[in-house]
Amino acid sequence: MTVRPARPEELALLPGIEDAADEAFAAAGLGPLPPSADSAEYATALAVLVVGEPVVVGDRHGFVPVPDDELTSGLQVLRQREQELGLDKLGRRVVMRKALGGRVLLWDFDRTLGYRTGAWSSAVLEALDAAQPGHGYQISEIKAVLVNVYPWHTPEIAHPQLSAPGAWWRNMTEILTNALTRLGLAPDQAASAAQLVAARYTDPAAWRLFDDTLPTLLALSRLGWRHVVVSNHVPELPAILDSLGLTPHLAAIVNSADTGYEKPHPEAFRLALASVGQPAEVWMIGDNPVADIAGARDAGINAILVRTPDPGLPHYAPDLTHIAEILAASEPGV
Known about the structure:
With 334 residues, this protein is of the alpha/beta class.
């Protein structure tokens, strides 16, 4: 079963749907949620049904259909409440969305949760080795011509026109061709090598998770936090995340290659919050003091810098194992 994030036009419908649902709950004297929504059994039922949020699975909104003969007692409670409230499929998604709570962590991906061995310069070197064997260039020389060439180095410039299929890599291939020409290659040689970079960079075998990533996500999920990746990245990011086993742990993926907005652009954070319905409590976690931390704080979001020491910031963790401690210490009344 394929799960995809909701499109912007679908997200735009959420406020009206939620307002209507709240009115219906209030008219029924039930408040914004069914009375049993706080029970552990009901929460378990919701966790079984919800596949991501907001998402559409086939013609169904935000849940995995379960045959009636396979219902657990928790799912039976859910179905009974649906019947009492007269909810349709969209209404069911609204109830689940609210019941899941408003605690969300926005995660940078590259160099926060995972990394590509050798990063971009290594991918370009691999492509150059394939296109021009014996070229003689060193990785340090390649790094030098790749300084400040990527879309995230000019986050003030939005690029929604690059969200069309193939447009992002056509633009990036042109950038890489120019960089390799500056390196000293003939234009045709540079173009030939640049064409090979996409396959090298996005090869799942080149990507790794940090050892603390999955244990941290699991531990925080048990504490009621949902996870969203907010990344300045390539169009293939969802496939990379899936290959690393991260997809089941994520409520949404907000990728600059799809949206056209690079962190720290405020629209990147607005879209991230919209993807999970404007949560009541949200933190950004990332390794970049500007793109992740300053961008989040400018958007009114608390932030934790990880893996990159900066004594000027109030929240820093050398690795992800300290995230839960920082969040707990920031709870009201602590």
